[in-house]
Specification:
The protein is 28% helix and 23% strand. It is α+β, with helices and mostly antiparallel strands. The protein has a single domain, classed as Beta-grasp domain (Ubiquitin-like (UB roll)), CATH 3.10.20. Strands 2-1-5-3-4 form a 5-stranded mixed beta sheet. It starts with a strand and ends in a 6-residue tail after the last strand.
Length: 83
């Protein structure tokens, strides 16, 4: 699955995307986030404050308990404001 990082997260991690194959126990967006934090120092630094993380699965905004079964793409981004 492709994992995309946007805005501040992309800057902190130092790249815009990763191709990942999480283990079978990773079933939700929150599980994927925990997996990334455990396995990558850049992600650990970027995702240290869970309150400012938003996610999308296959380009649809979702909550952290959303399943990633069959997902081709998961994106992480900070809250978006208008202006």
């Amino acid at each position: 699955m492709k994992v995309l990082y946007f805005a501040r997260f992309r800057q902190l991690i130092g790249r815009s995307a990763d191709d990942v194959s999480p283990p079978p126990e990773v079933k939700t967006v929150a599980d994927l986030l925990d997996f990334l934090i455990r396995t990558d120092n850049g992600c650990a630094a970027a995702f240290s404050d869970a309150k400012v993380i938003r996610a999308a699965v296959d380009q649809a905004h979702v909550k952290m308990d959303h399943s990633i079964a069959g997902a081709r793409e998961v994106a992480f981004f900070p809250p978006v404001t208008g202006g």
